[in-house]
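Trying the structure run again after the queue cleared.
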Amino acid sequence: MVWMVTIGSVSEGRSQEQAMMNLKTAAKILLLLTLVLSQFGCSDSRPAEVTAAARPVPNAPAAPPPLPSDREPFFVASGPLIVEHQVDVAAQRDGVVAEVHAEPGLMVREGRLLAQLDDRQATADLNAARARTRSTAADLKNWEAEAKVLEADAERSRKMWEAQLITQEQFDHARFKAESDQWDVKRVQEMLVNSQQTERSLELELEKTRIRAPFSGIVARRYVRAGQQVNRGDRMFWITETSPLRVKFTLPERFAGKIQRGQTFEVTSADSGGARFSAKVMQISPVIDPSSGTIEVLAQLVGPTKDLRPGMTTSIRVPNLP
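Done. Tokens:
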């Protein structure tokens, strides 16, 4: 496209310098119009950059899916270390703690005295019961001796009746009196048994004032102090075994029927410096927990376990069997 700019004639009365200025101004305007038309010119062709951007980009290759857990060589479960015997020793009767004989960390054997409650009342009641038992036993001997006397009288009356020296009524009187005395002997015998059982009951109450270790282990905690009032059922000591150690853990239901008793697994603990231990399966839950879809397994550690303590959390490596 051709553009033409017409510049009006310069009057003869203007000076030559003014004409030159007008000519420069017109040249600037022509240059500006040329630049504008070059930017907004009508062209059917699209820029190469736009055409290239419009081309579809091929999709990048998708990343491979992660390996399912059931295809991994091992399934790692976790569970705490436990022991068979671990209990809170509680007071079996009300009383005041008179003496404390055990502190945390003390290794104790079964039956070791841990604490002593005030036993003065229980001791007095037991002594009274023992006195009643002795009295009843002496009374029984007296009745047994009297019974023998009445038996002898009844036998003499029988012989005299056979010899027609006494009447039938006299013989019956002696016989029935001897029989009545035998029932008195039985009554006193039962009284003696009652006294003996009462004495035994009070002995047990006295024994309850002595707090003893139910099994061999270590004193983990002490909850009481001397002079403290305790009620029946209050905790006094926490006693726990230190071995053998066991680990209880759960596995997905796909392991049901694939784990056998006696099978050995590898056990590790972060608190043992990365040491590895072995555990042999002892029990396997025969049913699947419907709420979690898991089975419970109990295994016992074998070999040295000096770096492990009850309550530690461990990891168990279970092979993913086909």
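Residues 1-14, 42-54, 63-70 have pLDDT under 50 and may be disordered. Worth checking whether this holds up in the mutant runs.
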